[in-house]
User: Fold DUF4190 domain-containing protein from Microbacterium awajiense.
Amino acid sequence: MSDTTPPPDGRAPQPPQPPQPPAYPQAPSAYPPPASATQPAPTPPPYGQQPSQPGGYPPPAYGTPQQQYAAAPAYGSAYGSAKTNTLAVVSLIASIVGLVFVPFIGSIVGVITGHMSLSQIKQTGEQGRGMGLTGTILGWVGLAFSILGLILLFAFIPYMMTTIPTTT
Assistant:
């Protein structure tokens, strides 16, 4: 068909249009355009059928995610298989319980297990030195409060006995 003959639908022939420049100049890109910019959007599958890719997207243009990204390291793998010392945890919990609920016994347990955990951590290289140290310090503070409370109690018993009125 020549350029001067009208098309079969009865419209007048149109001369070819030159490409329009963009409204603003674009800088050249060092990266190729994404696949979605050069390909038309995929049509969704008919109702009831699953898309070939999740979300109906085209396959990735630059490889699969397994090729692009390395696997995340497992928790704690940067430090080897170091674990937290159990006695350090026991020391911290016992010392807190000794300060709040059971003043003398909890503090004694916290001090003993704290010193044992610090010794084990030095030998084995386990984690938990801060917890062991905190448990030991809180245990000693709890013991000091317990002893101070006993001293004040025994100091005020004679005073309380002399000030209580007796009925005769």
About this structure: The chain has a mean pLDDT of 78. Residues 86-163 form one domain.
